[in-house]
Amino acid sequence: MGMPGMDGIEFLQQARKLSPDTVCAMLTGNADQQTTVRALNEGGVHRFLNKPCTSAMVIEAINACIEHFHQLRAHRQAEEKAVDGGIRLLTQVLHAADPQAPQRAENLMEYVRSYYNTVDPRGRMPRDLELAVTFSSIGLAIIPAAILRRARTGGALSTSEEHLVESASEMGGQILGFIPHMENASAIVRYQAKGFDGSGYPKDAVCGEELPFGSRLLRVMSDLLRLEAEGLHRVEALARMSAADLPYDPEILKVCRTRWRPTSTKRMERICVQVPVAELCISDVLARPLHTISHIFLAPEGTVVTKPLMRKIRQWERLQMLKEEVFISIMRPSHPEALGTPPLPHPTVSPTSPTAPTFTTSPTLPL
């Protein structure tokens, strides 16, 4: 207890950080009440022995500590099994709700991990953040498919339905919160759509440095991937994101603009895909100019489909003045079969050069 520079309880506190399952006992001649209380509350001492004590008392204390250790280990293994089971279940639910979600999460994971390698090459991306990236869109799984489809394709939504879609990240955080030891990942997902300035969901007072760092990083990287998928060069996308009054962490953007250079493990290609006009989604990129069947010009090639443009398209669609199919431009791995991704239907490969992977999730509309 009376070591120079660090007393026995401080030593035990440091030991517990390195080895949380280790069970501690204390044998001391300093038997005052304050020491005992600190040993139990701060040092996590399981057995407290006063000098002098017999060998039998020491042996009994050690045996009790061993038994307690086995109980702790069994409890931790049971918790880990529960966590693994919850993760597997959520993975299946997410894939069933959105088969493309794992690919989008993989793209986001690549950017987030490379950011960590830039900031600290010897460090490792926190496990909580890895789980948060993997399940960043889990909140969409509980939104009714009909509502989600209307939101994606520009259909009319009621006020309550708009609130439901916009609060998908908040609901995703609540889902993760039901799994043991995922409190940190839950908070990251919950606040990933929240602006650094406090805008967005959830509607609370949390903002700035109070937001989890992982949430601020996900907001930057997901928006960057979305802008790159729309055809912007990374430098231009980051410059736009760094403009005044936009809700991003300025320090993260500074690192991205000055030091961060993601190293892609996949070669991507831009392809032109023909889809039914009824399935055209907000944030899709037109691969060819869009006209009505009477040759009225609506939008040029390369246009990102926004909500106002989608409303115009739906109006012409209701008048039956649009062709049944439209061409959009998307990104995919150059050899999707080798990566376990099935080839897209009827693709026409465009001669454009490979760029960043696509990720069409928006922080306010994570679709």
Summarize the topology.
Elements lengths: L7 H11 L5 E5 L4 H9 L3 E6 L4 H43 L3 H19 L7 H8 L10 H8 L6 H8 L1 H9 L6 H8 L22 H17 L4 H8 L8 H9 L9 E9 L8 E2 L3 E2 L5 E3 L7 H12 L6 E9 L13 E3 L18
Parallel strand pairs: 1-2
Antiparallel strand pairs: 3-7, 3-8, 4-7, 5-6
Helix pairs in contact: 4-10, 5-9, 8-9, 9-10, 10-11
Brief overview, please?
This protein has 367 residues and is an alpha+beta fold. The chain contains 13 helices and eight strands.
Helical content band: 40-55%
- Name the poorly predicted regions: 335-367
From the alpha carbons, calculate the radius of gyration and give it in angstroms: 27 Å
Oligomeric nature of the chains: single chain
| Computed structural class | alpha+beta
- Assigned CATH architecture of the largest domain: Orthogonal Bundle
Mean pLDDT: 79
The order of strands across the largest sheet is 4-7-3-8
Strand percentage, roughly? 5-15%
CATH superfamily of the largest domain: Hypothetical protein af1432
Briefly, what CATH class of the largest domain? Mainly Alpha
Output the CATH topology of the largest domain. Hypothetical protein af1432
Please count the helical segments.
13
**Mind summarizing the main beta sheet?**
4 strands, antiparallel
How many domains is the backbone divided into? 3
The shape, in one word, is elongated
Termini separation comes to 58 Å
* H-E order: HEHEHHHHHHHHHHEEEEHEE
Q: Please tally the β strands and state the result.
A: 8
